[in-house]
Write a structure and sequence with these properties.
single chain, mainly alpha, 8 helices, disordered N terminus, binds protoporphyrin IX containing FE
Length: about 230
């Protein structure tokens, strides 16, 4: 009871400090100009950047320390470590998501971004979170089945399949994400600078080819948006 009360208190403190940070980070800039509508060159918060860059170390460690074979779990010290690591990993993913979901996608953009483009980016971010949660969850399922003596058969195959699929999907999504971040940096639209501490942008690219591709890209997204909205009517 006492433990539940203290946890509740800590969680409320955490939420309050987050709300305070969001007010400090976001509200002073919302004056309603065109730039603000596009995101107004806003920065992700220090906590948001810490989650983003700190988590990459945890993720890379999880991927590099991966187990090669189910038999390795016979080592009970390794099994306990895997379970502890997966629990911490999952906890951090959940806390990060509950914090980051309040921020809009492309909040640093200095140019208006088509709605369809925002949805696509949001979809990729959410899919990354799903994979990052499925990795430890399926790992814990493997461990649970293994400790119950289920070392092969359809259930364990399902858990292993889910685990491998989550890992593979996470590579694909992260590659797309990094590629999109680099392209955004080339365009110089401010999104990169809102999260990345190096190679900051100072203005939108005026390179002819970049401008043309960017225009074409926006046109495709606007057409997609129109197609969806006319389908709804
Ligand atoms: C060097 C590589 C990376 C670069 C340059 C980069 C860049 C960025 C940028 C510019 C944003 C802001 C997007 C926006 O405001 O809409 C962002 C957000 C995000 N990034 Fe990355 N990123 C990198 C690696 C990663 C990796 C490895 C992961 C996953 C493990 C990741 C997961 C995310 C997520 C989920 C968001 C959405 C905001 C959040 O919920 O934290 N990124 N990234
Ligand atoms: C966040 C935590 C974890 C991460 C990031 C992670 C990551 C990975 C990766 C990347 C692979 C290689 C998948 C592939 O073949 O493509 C793997 C394999 C494996 N993982 Fe995990 N894992 C985690 C937790 C766990 C846990 C808790 C267990 C069970 C105790 C576990 C058991 C296994 C096993 C048995 C394999 C080998 C699958 C096979 O036989 O091919 N993992 N893990």
């Amino acid at each position: 009871m006492l433990l539940a009360g203290s946890f509740g208190g800590l969680w409320t403190q955490f939420q309050l400090s987050i709300d305070r940070e969001i007010r400090e980070d976001l509200l002073p800039e919302s004056s309603g100009t065109d730039m603000d509508q596009a995101g107004g060159n806003r920065q992700h918060s220090v906590l948001g950047k810490t989650f983003h860059w700190g988590f990459i170390i945890l993720y890379a460690y999880g991927i590099f320390k991966q187990i090669d074979d189910l038999e390795e779990l016979e080592d009970s010290a390794l099994l306990s470590f895997e379970i502890a690591f997966a629990t911490v990993f999952l906890g951090i993913v959940m806390i990060r998501y509950s914090y980051m979901r309040r921020f809009e996608t492309f909040m640093g953009a200095t140019e208006p971004v088509p709605l369809a483009h925002r949805y696509l980016a949001k979809g990729i971010h959410t899919s990354m979170y799903l994979c990052l949660a499925m990795l430890p969850l399926s790992g814990l399922l493997i461990a649970g089945l293994f400790t119950q003596g289920v070392k092969d058969g359809p259930l364990q195959d399902f858990a292993l399949g889910l685990h491998e699929m989550s890992a593979s999907m996470s590579y694909v999504l992260i590659a797309m994400h990094v590629g999109a971040a680099i392209w955004s940096r080339v365009k110089g639209e401010g999104v990169w600078t809102s999260m990345v501490p190096i190679l900051k942008e100072d203005r939108v690219s005026r390179n002819g080819l970049v401008t043309r591709i960017s225009k074409l890209e926006n046109e495709v997204f606007n057409r997609l948006e129109n197609a969806f909205s006319s389908q709804k009517e």
